[in-house]
Structure formats: structure tokens, C-alpha cells
Amino acid sequence: MPVSQRDVRNRIASVKNIQKITRAMEMVAAARLRRAEQRIEALRPYASAIRRMTRQAAEAAGHVPRLPILQERSEVGSVGLLLIAGDRGLAGAFNSNIVRAGVAAGREHGGDGREVAYYTSGRRPTSSLTFRGLEPRESFIGFSDRPAYADARGIAERVMAAYVDGEVDRVEVFYNGYISPISQVVTRETLLPLQQATVLEEESEEDSEQESSGPGALVEYEPDPEEILARLVPDYVEISIYRALLESTASEHGARMTAMRNASENAGTLIEDLTLEMNRARQAEITQEIMEVVAGAEGLAG
Predict the structure, then answer these.
(1) What's the CA gap between 188 and 141, in Å, rounded?
(2) DSSP 145
(3) How far apart are CA 89 and CA 124, in angstroms?
(4) Tens digit of each residue's pLDDT (9 = 90 or more) over 203-259
(5) What pTM did the predictor assign?
(6) In the chain, where are the structural domains located?
(7) Among 111, 114, 116, 199, whose CB has the most other CB atoms within 10 angstroms?
(8) 1.20.120.80, 1.20.140.10, 1.20.140.150, 1.10.287.80: which CATH number matches 5-20+260-301?
(9) Residues 175 and 255: beta-carbon distance below 8 Å
(10) Architecture of domain 26-209+218-258
């Protein structure tokens, strides 16, 4: 049965309404992205400094003080995986990439005989894990659009308590690292124990440039490096999680802006196709009417 002009016209109107919504969402995401980028730029120097100070204090101490938060287990029997994503969808593969990476890491640890405990930040990873039958041990929701340092502190306190209490022997975090509005990379970091943490890995190019930009200096610690390290580790965990939250927020807005722009462009293409279809339907109706008129005239003439 041929499609009527009215049906096609209604479809065009519906697609145009959706296009208006996607364009509005793109503009909102772009505005929020600019603010998120500013917050990241303001935090990155401080976060890098905390990580560098923690690494230097660990090197100066020579050994890790005998504090529960700094004790490394001889055997890793359980791992806590913190997945940081968003509370909302309509952001392309932003949320699903984190869930896939976390689940893959869980299978990897499970294959090595380790128990896996999931912690989530965001409604989407929480619901996705629950749907897969992997109920998170604890979830934190409601602040993915604009996380505060207090939110990071709450998450840090919970994962540090789990580590100190022996619930987990290792803590890893997964989040979308922000590169640009159209590019986000899934990042996996080790938070605890400190001996295996990303902060003690080989210095990044950014840290090397910062440290080589000025003259070297002999650092004297007051009080002892051990005590300073014990104070820095909680700050390091908090700031690492806060940075991950901000990176994830910027990545989410960038992914949503890109997804909504693509949706708007696809809607425009669909409108063009439907307009052509409507013109063909109109032409077919006009042709049909002309044929009926001609047939009627011939009938009267006969």
C-alpha cells in the first residue's frame, strides 16, 4: 500500500521535533563541557603535584611505614574495581566502554582465582552491572554532571576502609580520560596498595618536564618522610578519584555533544529523504488524478 502524503508529512514533523531536541542537548552539553574543561585545567597541576610529592616521599622514606593503609598483601585474594561513568545515557559508547573494561578486568582477576568487588560511580554502570548479575558492593550516584571534592572524598573513604579492613587487597579505578570533545580514552589505574599504584610507576612526560624546568634542590623533610607519606596517601587517593571524576564528566559532556550532533545531522538527512518521498507521493497522486480526468473525458466523448 503506497504511503500517503499525510503520513510522510507527519513523519517529517516528528523528525524535526526530535532534531530540535538533539540540537538543544548538543548546545547544553557544549556549555557544560567548557566549564568541565576549566575545572580539569585548574586541577591537573595540583593533582600532578600531589602525586609527585607522594612519589618523592616514598622514595625518601626508603620503606613503607607500618600503617594499615600502606601495607601490601603478600597475596592478592580480592580486588576492588571502581567504575566511574555517568548518571544518564545518550552519550554514545561513553558508559558502555567503562562497563566492558571493568567486566573484562573482573573476568581477568576471576581467572586468576581472585574475588572481585565492584564499586560504581554513576547510575548507568550500576544498572548495567546489576543487569549482568554483578551487583555492586556500593554505588555513588547523583553527581556525575558536576562532581564536588566532597563526592570524591566519600568514595575514597569507602575504598580505603575496604582496603584497611581487608575486604579487598587491591583497588583499581576505571574512567574515561578526557582528550578532546571527540576523543576519550578508557583509563585503568591502580590506587592501592601504594607500592603498586600508578603514582610510583615511571614518571610521566608531564612530571619529567615540570621537574626538569627548574634547578634541582635537596629536599629536607620535617617531620620524617614516613609521617609525611602517611599523611599524603589519603590525599593522593582522594585527589586521584576527584581527577577521575572530573575527567569522566568532561568526557561525558564531550561524548554527548558529539552524539547529539551526529543525531541532528542524521535527522537532517532523514528529513531530506522523507521530503523526496513526499514529493514522489504528491507526484504520483497528481498523475493518478490526471489519468482519472483523461479517462473520464474519453468516456464522455465515447
Answers:
(1) 20
(2) S
(3) 7
(4) 444 445 555 555 544 566 666 667 777 788 888 899 999 999 999 999 999 999 999
(5) 0.81
(6) 5-20+260-301, 26-209+218-258
(7) 199
(8) 1.10.287.80
(9) no
(10) 3-Layer(aba) Sandwich (3.40)
